[in-house]
Model the fold of this input.
Amino acid sequence: MKKYLLTLAVFFLTLAAGAQRTVDGIQVMIPRQQAMQSLVSRFGEPVSEVGDKVVFNNVLFNGEQFSEANFFFDGKDRLHLIRLKNNCGSHAKAVERMDDLWKKYGELYSTTEGMNHEDGKFVVGYDKDGTRLFTIATFRNRCDLSFGPF
Done:
């Protein structure tokens, strides 16, 4: 019984911590309507809003310019994933962009790198509690920076 109560308490503390997370001033795990007000105020009108995904073009995020920003909502209609994309023109430029982002975020967070058989290395960043916070990866001629899921 004690293990069950402890597990339940940890679960709810994790949920509460996730609900209070922000990424560059964008609060995650908040209801879609509240998130959309914040996103539209910051980035203007989305270019696409289909199902659980909302897309904005040409956004400035944490001082970096991105070609596209995708915001995803979970089954409870809460913001839970942010994916920022740069179309780089070549795979070499995408890797260069990934390395630049890695250098920037690596100064703030613990990071590790891994390999994907299809497209090469990727970087994972961890929050202060050791939880995965972001991933930086290349795919063909694109560099993606993803925060979440929370």
